[in-house]
């Protein structure tokens, strides 16, 4: 087991029975420890063999211990040997990121997944703060050394919504399709030369029964499998993109 707590890594090999997983996770969430576990059936897992590519799943959920839909998705994804899952809220409860660690995580990944519950038609605040702290550094401050290394990597958005899908329509309570509300993230992917994958969306998360949650988890695993099978992709912009980034300054210095 590898535990990350306040920047310190602890290694311990343990065997965990499936029924113990939720109990263990709840304890970890209560103590606000960000966790990466080496067991495929656990909350966050990763295989280090060179032959296995990595799907990095960054979970941004302000109250994951109380979640049903995101919990079901994470439990399902954790069965994949190529998945590394990080509970960002547990790792950074105060919103102060270890930018070096986050850059290293992104560069090492073959695929990037951002998972979160939709809140007021947008992402949770921690995800926006992560973009400001990590992506700004990678693409406006150290593009050649850091940002350029993400070129062509697939980005999958996984979002859960409390309302039904029909509510996200012109005549529905939310008026706009959820896919359209995610456009700022698609623009971010384009700006960062990431390959945009069609988002994986789960509706009616508040009322979903056990059968629906199981189906969502199964579909998530299938989708991650297809994402992995697609293999590495080339940058769409090539060397011309370098000059575009390198001639710019951090947004805060210009606005």
Please describe the topology of this protein:
Layout: E1 2-5, E2 8-11, H1 21-30, E3 34-36, E4 55-59, H2 69-77, E5 83-87, H3 88-91, H4 99-108, E6 111-117, H5 125-141, E7 154-160, H6 178-181, H7 183-191, E8 195-196, E9 200-202, H8 210-229, H9 240-246
Parallel strand pairs: 4-5, 4-6, 6-7, 7-8, 7-9
Antiparallel strand pairs: 1-2, 1-3
Short synopsis of the structure:
By secondary structure, this protein is of the alpha/beta class.
Q: How is this structure best described in words?
A:
With 255 residues, the protein is α/β, with parallel strands linked by helices. The chain has a single domain (2-253), classed as Rossmann fold, CATH 3.40.50. Helices cover 35% and strands 16% of the residues. The chain has helices at residues 21-30, 69-77, 88-91, 99-108, 125-141, 178-181, 183-191, 210-229, 240-246, and strands spanning 2-5, 8-11, 34-36, 55-59, 83-87, 111-117, 154-160, 195-196, 200-202. Strands 4, 5, 6, 7, 8 and 9 form a 6-stranded parallel β-sheet that branches. The protein has a 3-stranded antiparallel β-sheet with strand order 2-1-3. β6 (111-117), α5 and β7 form a beta-alpha-beta unit. The longest helix is centred in the C-terminal third of the chain and has 20 residues, at 210-229. It is globular. The N and C termini lie far apart (44 Å). The model is unreliable at 1-50 and 238-247 (pLDDT under 50).
């Amino acid at each position: 087991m590898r535990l990350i707590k306040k920047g310190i890594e602890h290694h311990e090999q343990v065997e965990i029975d499936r029924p113990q997983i939720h109990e263990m996770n709840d304890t970890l969430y209560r103590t606000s420890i960000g966790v990466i576990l080496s067991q495929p059936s656990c909350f966050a897992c990763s295989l280090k063999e060179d032959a296995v590519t990595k799907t990095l799943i960054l979970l941004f959920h302000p109250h994951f211990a109380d979640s049903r839909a995101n919990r079901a998705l994470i439990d399902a994804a954790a069965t994949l040997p190529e998945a590394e899952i990080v509970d960002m809220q547990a790792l950074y409860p105060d919103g102060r990121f270890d930018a070096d660690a986050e850059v290293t995580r992104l560069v090492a990944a073959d695929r990037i997944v951002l998972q979160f519950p939709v809140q007021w038609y947008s992402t949770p605040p921690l995800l926006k703060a992560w973009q400001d702290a990590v992506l700004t550094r990678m693409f406006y401050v150290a593009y050649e050394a850091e940002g350029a290394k993400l070129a062509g990597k697939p980005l999958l958005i996984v979002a859960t919504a409390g309302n039904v899908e029909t509510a996200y329509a012109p005549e529905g309570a939310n008026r706009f399709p959820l896919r359209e509300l995610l456009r700022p993230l698609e623009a971010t992917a384009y700006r960062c030369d990431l390959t945009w994958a069609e988002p994986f969306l789960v509706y009616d998360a508040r009322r979903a029964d056990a059968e629906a949650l199981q189906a969502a988890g199964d579909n998530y695993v299938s989708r991650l499998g297809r994402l992995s099978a697609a293999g590495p992709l080339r940058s769409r912009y090539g060397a011309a993109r370098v000059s575009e980034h390198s001639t710019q300054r951090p947004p805060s210095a210009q606005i």
